[in-house]
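User: Predict the structure for this protein chain, please.
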Amino acid sequence: MNNTFTILVRAGNSQAIQGISQIDGGEIHLTYDPTKLSIDALSDITAGASLGTVLQSQRNNTTGTLDYAAGTLTLPVQGEFTLVTIRFRALASTGSGVTLIQASSAPYRENVLTLDGAAITPTPTPMSVKINP
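Assistant: Here is the predicted structure, written as structure tokens:
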């Protein structure tokens, strides 16, 4: 325990979905078990190169939430890209099980990708993490 690991939150729209084939903004809201994982500092949340203008970057290790949004003021992005890189610290063993890092589905914490104000809702995949003693 007390080791760190990094995850990349990848996004993209390689096919035109709901009429959007390029991306100029992205928003992700993650939940994690704060008894197992922490994000030590805001500097552990790093913007991807494609959407480099950070609009929101906050974490709460008491509730186990991360809220992040970024965009670009230049050309939109096409294809897949890294939205954000996050460094977590392992706090406690998961025993024989795993802990999840997953996208929130709570109201007002929707995950979206945008182009010129039009939004699509991506289908995020949860990530299983096993922490050994």
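The first strand starts at residue 4 and ends at 13.
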